[in-house]
Amino acid sequence: MRMYTDPRGEAYEQIIDLAILNSECFVLGEKISADMVQGNYTSVLEELEPYLVKTIVIQDDNMDEVTQISNTYRSHAFYTAGTYNFYRCCEESGNLLKKMANRLSDWIYPSLPEDLCFLKEGGGDYLYSVVHEHMYGMDVTEEEAIELMDRITGLFLKLKSHRELDRLLDDAIKHKADWLYISGHRLTELPERIRELTELRDLEIFEQDLYRLPEGLFELSKLERLTIMTADLESIPASIARLKNLRELCIQCASSDRPTPGYRTKPKEEISLNRIPPEIGKLEQLERLTIQYTSIHELPPELEKLKRLRILDLGMCMINRKPDFLYDMKQLKYINVSRDSLWETIESEQ
Question: Fewer C-beta neighbours within 10 Å, C or N terminus of the chain?
Fold first, then answer.
């Protein structure tokens, strides 16, 4: 069962204790060359050495071996070349895992060996992590997941009951989720209680009937990435300026989460989103701005204030030419301002 986000702090420690009790061994991968290994990384391997059971080495470019080992152990741990160390599960080794990290996503180079996974006797993951892909999960039933979530604040597993938006939000708020994906709820508006998700750093919404963004959304002060996919959007409110930590903003109109036979998107000329508010220039941390399939016909000069902006992608808009002020934005690495295609690119000329 997938996790929405990896447990941290006390929840991480409780999950490690559970995994130690329910697993035969745990696996950590070394996926870097020996000459890249640094201080703390080496000391971690040395501390875990007394619990080492065996090591498997998968050579570069040997995908057949990757597939064979992955199938043998039925684990997420083995997906690329590297050295994989198997360690005995016991109280002492579990205490080391709790001392060395604060959450599953800490298990990544350069600080630590990668992708902590716990294997059950006979194979299969009890607990797995693929940190680069933000994938975390446990082998538990729906009933077990509900019991664990009631007991461990910070363990946020994906339940069938999360098809009900209120239950999803209840659990996301309780477990202080920092990532959330909302889709398939047939929303026309987001509930104002979205403001209660105070720990969110990454929010993705895919709801084709969503038309208006509530003020509560812009109270999520820790938000770093916001993705909205919908058929049509009324506007980007000026309140966007309140998301001071936002690094990536992606809005895609003409998106459908449940296309039916004969479904047609609106012509972009009829899309309600026709301007970018000048207040967007206050997002000092913004690095990537993607707004696709809109009736936007001009860019606000306040974009020039975005000194960290690296990617500007306005595919399928109604802008005839790249504004002159973009030439002065030397930090831009990629610019797409196109009328007829998502891929018709006007490259940065710096």
Answer: C
